[in-house]
Amino acid sequence: MAGCDRSEKRDDLMRPFLSPQLTPRIVVDQPVALYDAPLSIALEGFAPRTRVTVTATFQVAEATPWRSGAAFIADDGGRVDVTRQAPVAGTWEGVSPMGLFWSATPVPGKWRPAPPDWVMWSSVARLHAEAPGAAPAELTIVRRLAGAGVSRRLVREAGVVGTLFLPPGDGPHRAVIVLGGSDGGISEHRAALVASHDYAALSLAYFGTTDLPSELVNVPVEYFEHAVSWMRRQPWLQDGFLAVWGASRGGELALLLGATIPAINAVIAYVASGVLHGPFEPHDPPDTPPCWTSRGQPLPYLQEHNATDDPTSVDYTKSPVAESPRYLSQLRDVNAVERATIPVERTHGPILLVSGQDDQIWPSSILAEIAIRRLQQHGHTYPFRHLSYEGAGHAIYIPYSPTTQIEYGHPNGVHYTGGGSPRANAEAGIDAWRHVLAFLEECAGSVGEPSNSPVQRTGGSRCSPSGR
């Protein structure tokens, strides 16, 4: 209470110096919106040509708060267009309509875990704008990963482990299976958001949680066949359309499943690989078991009997670790690459690959091109495209997520750098998401069309806009 008293006394002392003509306010076109909706933000009612500072504090439930901020010069009408103006100082530089969102960093000393169902909570952003001689302005923005009417249900049926998100209504719905990466468990945020765009989305776990392998080792392809069969038995599945979407090791897996399971109609692979890899561990010994098996047999992987693997290309004693050089050394073994390459040409549908050219986890742009070349060589009759983003790293997220955490600790105990820059990663995520939604919409609409349909031309149609 003493702090409140001091604040009130300070406000009383400052009140004579505040201009009675100024009525500062924050104006947002969508105070409540989906997480991927671009927002128009303006600061109005300030003195002309004055310096206006805006900060944003974000929080989901009681989890770790994130914060960003910038200073702008108001125009002759006392207005700042945050969407179209470049800040003179702040957590980002240059014009960036959603810079307040992607440039946020965790508030120091405030780390708190998110609840298990955090994707169903709103992300609340509290905006505060102030300038000398004017009263502060405040506004709250609510952003949702799961839109109105989206439901969340844990799935533990027929051996399938995951979380199912359904859009409102009884259906039928088009469907997407969403796969996480080498951190394991269930990653729900992409599934929740894609369900908000009228798709049934199953976030499918495949290791690192109850009833599944504890490590990314000896995971059977048959498990995913069961998951696809389970999805296809659901009464809400529309027109039989089922896509698979994976990121990182999940992207590698998505390409493998597309080539293996004919019932999959489209594949989206973020920062993925066109060749199979072994467990995500430093200094893998030659006898390391495979990640993937099929009919009880191990699937060959790049690191297996690799003649050009150079462990010295990466200094694991330094932090953070940039591991791409080691993968590049392994790719020099032509025979190993050939053995481990995924036969993506067997996929019964279109393929969209997304990568960052500065990916330091592994060289995802080069690894994706292996898949593209194979599709070209075999005359794949469905559309395919590779979106390769200059300056972006491994962390290509859903749009307007904070991208400032380039370095991170992995469950395997190594502290990695994902590469790229916060801005490049953010811009890649924004652009890629636009293509993902267009890709899904076009591909879902083409299910059942004959092979001479425009949607199935290699490198053509809106499903694969303008080829590669």
Structural description of this entry:
It is a single chain. This protein is of the alpha/beta class and 468 residues long. It has two domains: 129 residues, Acyl-CoA thioester hydrolase/BAAT N-terminal domain (Immunoglobulin-like, Sandwich); 306 residues, Alpha/Beta hydrolase fold, catalytic domain (Rossmann fold, 3-Layer(aba) Sandwich). The protein contains nine helices and 23 strands. The strands form five sheets. Strands 11-12-14-13-16-17-20-21 form an eight-stranded mixed sheet, sandwiched between helices. Strands 2, 4, 5, 7, 8, 9 and 10 form a seven-stranded mixed sheet that branches. Strand 9 and strand 10 form a beta hairpin.
Write the layout of secondary structure elements.
Elements: H1 2-14, E1 25-28, E2 32-34, E3 41-44, E4 51-60, E5 66-73, E6 80-81, E7 89-90, H2 99-102, E8 105-106, E9 122-130, E10 137-144, E11 151-157, E12 160-166, E13 173-179, H3 189-195, E14 199-204, E15 219-220, H4 221-232, E16 237-247, H5 249-260, E17 266-270, E18 292-294, E19 297-298, H6 324-330, H7 334-340, E20 351-356, H8 364-377, E21 384-389, E22 407-409, E23 415-417, H9 422-445
Parallel strand pairs: 2-10, 13-14, 13-16, 15-18, 16-17, 17-20, 20-21
Antiparallel strand pairs: 1-3, 3-6, 4-5, 4-9, 5-7, 5-8, 9-10, 11-12, 12-14, 18-19, 22-23
